[in-house]
Amino acid sequence: MKTPKYSWIILLILVTSGMINQVDKIIIGLVSVPLMKELHLSPSQWGIVGSSFFWFFTFSSFIIGGMADSRNTKKMFTWISFIWLIVQFTTPFVSSLSLLVITRMVLGAGEGPAVAISTSIIGKWFPKHRHGIGFGAVLFGATIGPAIASPLLISLINGYGWRSAFIAMGIVGLMVLVLWLILGKESPKEIGSYAFDQEDKHSIISSNVSWRQFLPYLLSKNFIFIVLCAGCAYWLLSVQAVWFPAYFTEIQHFDGKMLKLAVSLPFLFAAICQIVFALLSDRLYRKTGDIRKARINVAGITMVLSAICLFLANAFNSSAISILFFILAPGFAIVILSLAPAILMEFFSPKNIGKAQGTYVALSSATSIIAPLLFGYLIQYAGTKAIGYSYGFQVTSLVMFVIGLLFWTIVRPANQSQTTIKPEEQVIV
Q1: What is the dihedral of CA 127, 133, 134, 136, to 10 degrees?
Q2: Cα distance between residue 272 and residue 297, in whole Å
Q3: Model's pTM, two decimal places?
Q4: Res 415 pLDDT > 50
Q5: Which of 137, 187, 22, 116 is nearest to 345 (CA)?
Q6: Residues whose CB is less than 8 angstroms from the CB of residue 69 and which lie 6 or more positions away in sequence, other chains included
């Protein structure tokens, strides 16, 4: 069964929305220095700002994300996109820590279900052997977006103040929402094509079940270690979004062009990793039909590499070498976030993927609540800010290394599904 051409239009819109989604997250890091000065915030208070985004993010991804199994995903995606717009246009008016925290909480609540809803949409529009590139493309948008937008937003912030960045992203988000309202469709059935969410034959649960029936599957060692490994990625990415710009400014003393490069290059490398490893994983899956060789090994190896790179970034005194490893670490870490949905799609049928994906995102992203707070505490109460950052990076790299190895070793499907891809399904993109 060939992938419908319209599937790529849907994917393109999801990729663009992913770009908006991630830039909305990282703006707060780009404005950290001027905003902390204007509101007179300490490092520990800024840690609360960074953490607050994920307070409702986890709950909404769990509750609303689970609804993607049975609700109209086009309407759901429309509503959460509308919430993103409201926050971008209201944030410029904040004048206190409490108001800033509220805007971050609302934005987190709106962005929490995005991954689960996107996963459900991709499950309807793409066959299984395209899931790697489908999820990878959405996360490619989430990484290339900041790589493109960061230098532009930094220039905008330097020229017109931090508020201009939120207004600019609000305008861009409005344009993408209008595009989705015009071109977005609920499933291929609307264009008279085959719905891929009917492909249930290799899943451990083939029918839509209640949360009570579904719970035991979420307590399996496979699901737990997928969550833990992805949690490491969310931990590092939240630190990257909240603290990297301040670290490059205050510790490395970068400004101007160097600051733009230091902030944007990690996202650019992460975008390259998304596509390269997604294509590699899909190729391995088409050749072997083996989820472990195609998805699990790739995700495990890249997580271990990320941990090593983060440790080396903190170990070298040379700014050039340190920045090189700071560029590599998030890129390798983020690979699990594109491959985990594909792994879950193998373990759970599309009729239950909303529950699985929503729970996975809620639990794994919960680490993003702790990471900014821990870094803020260490930076404020260590002997110096540099020592505080160093402690934070050391702890992060150690945890990532251990969890990456455990994930790589332990996650093993009970029954390998030897999927045969028909020649007519092997469409070259």
Answers
A1: 150
A2: 19
A3: 0.72
A4: yes
A5: 116
A6: 120, 208, 351, 352, 353, 354, 355
Q: How far apart are CA 257 and CA 9, in angstroms?
A: 35
Residue 77 zone, left/alpha/beta (φ > 0; ψ -120 to 50; rest) = alpha
| Cα–Cα distance measured from residue 88 to residue 94, given in angstroms and rounded to the nearest whole number | 11
DSSP character at residue 351: T
Give residue for tokens 């899943």: 203
More confident call, 122 vs 100? 100
Answer for the pair 341, 133: CB distance below 8 angstroms, yes or no.
no
Residue 202 pLDDT greater than 80, yes or no? no
Residues 6+ apart with CB under 8 A from 51: 368, 369, 370, 371, 372, 373
CA distance 120 to 114: 10
CATH numbers and ranges of domains, the chain: 9-183+207-418 (1.20.1250.20)
pLDDT for res 420: 37
- Asked if residues 237 and 146 have their Cβ atoms less than 8 Å apart, the reply is no
Compute the distance between CA of residue 396 and CA of residue 330 in angstroms, rounded to an integer: 12
pLDDT (tens digit, 9 = 90+) per residue, 125-144?
777 667 667 777 777 787 78
∠ Cα 160 237 267 (to 5°): 60
Helices (H), ranges, 67-130: 73-90, 97-111, 114-125
3-state SS assignment for residue 186: coil
C-alpha pair distances (Å), 107 with each of 73, 158, 309, 312, 415: 19, 24, 31, 34, 40
Query: DSSP for 247-290?
Result: HHHHTS---HHHHHHHHHHHHHHHHHHHHHHHHHHHHHHHHH--
Are 403 and 228 within 8 A, CB to CB? yes
Residue 108's nearest CA partner among 156, 60, 49 is: 60
Cα(340)–Cα(291) distance, rounded to whole angstroms? 11
Q: Is the model's pLDDT at 425 over the cut of 50?
A: no
Q: Is the pLDDT of residue 230 over 90?
A: yes
pLDDT computed for residue 93 by the predictor: 92
